[in-house]
Amino acid sequence: MINLLCTVRNCHKALQRAEKIFVCPLGHSFDISSRGYVNLLQPQDKRSLNPGDSKQAVVARHRLLMSGQDNRVADKIVEIIKDFNFENFPKILDVGCGEGFYLNSIMNKYSAYASGLDISVEAIDLASRYYKNATWIVTNADRFLPYPDKEFNIVMSITARKNPSEFKRVLLPEGYLLIVVPAPDDLIELRESIMEKGVLRDRSENTLELFNRDFVFLNLSTVKYQQHLNKDLLNDLLLTTYRGARHREKEKFDKLEEMTITFSRQIFCFRPK
How does strand 152-158 pair with strand 171-182? Predict the structure, then answer.
């Protein structure tokens, strides 16, 4: 069971389920959607009317992942978690979970309690449609994670939001943090074709520096592979990147018919200090 907290400002009291709502002792209530997810996002935590990924981007990412892209990353995360050797069912949180692919991959391998959160209603709606074995939450991970202190054995952020102090708060002292970021050569061919330069961007130093105060770095794994994508999958890939919205670069992309793309991820493993 995953415990939840009220996200109303200055409340943060425990939520209890009552039929089709969650309610806190002060009477703040949150509807449970027909698909089973809960929207805890507060008005002051929105930067736009519909924050997060659009339905178009969410569906494109789902198609891309269902094609097999990033299976190796999911498999590596499963392999890493296997070494943690938890005695009981662990609790796992995926921050910025998108449409739930990675969390579901873990749940298919391990008996665990899991929760995924994302600021995009479209992403959580799709996750709760396809994957019924987790607690799906809409909220802003940059502000407050709606869970009690020391709730989770594992917290993950897979090319998503990073909130070190909140990650530490909701992790058990003996828990693990997994941070996945694009490696320097990730999508290098696409960047060379569309941006006319393939600049390598190493995020390692920034990642280690960001988590240095609250966590102890354990190890780093790299997953790298190439995949040949046809025009449709290339289009899905572009839709999942922020650069996909830029008209000038979209014109260059439209000239591409197929391409072999490098997918490269770095997986950092930490423990709380």
Answer: parallel
Buried b (16+ CB within 10 A) or exposed e, 98-109: bbbbbbbbbbee
Q: CA–CA separation, 175 vs 153, rounded Å? A: 4
Orientation of helix 55-66 relative to helix 121-130, angle to 10° = 40
**CA nearest 171: which of 90, 263, 80?**
90
Give 116's contacts (C-beta < 8 A, 6+ positions apart). Answer: 93, 94, 97, 100, 103, 124, 127, 134, 135, 136, 137
Q: From start to end of the chain, where are the E strands?
A: 16-18, 21-23, 29-31, 38-39, 91-95, 113-118, 135-138, 152-158, 171-182, 215-229, 259-272
Structure token digits, residue 23: 């309610």
User: What CATH number belongs to 48-272?
Assistant: 3.40.50.150
- Cα–Cα distances (Å) from 262 to 4, 62, 132, 139, 249, in that order, read 39, 19, 32, 32, 19
Q: What is the mean pLDDT of the chain?
A: 91
* End-to-end Cα separation, the chain, in angstroms: 26
Residues 66-103: tens digit of each pLDDT? 888 778 999 999 999 998 988 788 999 999 999 999 99
Please answer whether residues 37 and 130 qualify as being in contact, where contact means their C-beta atoms are separated by less than 8 angstroms: no
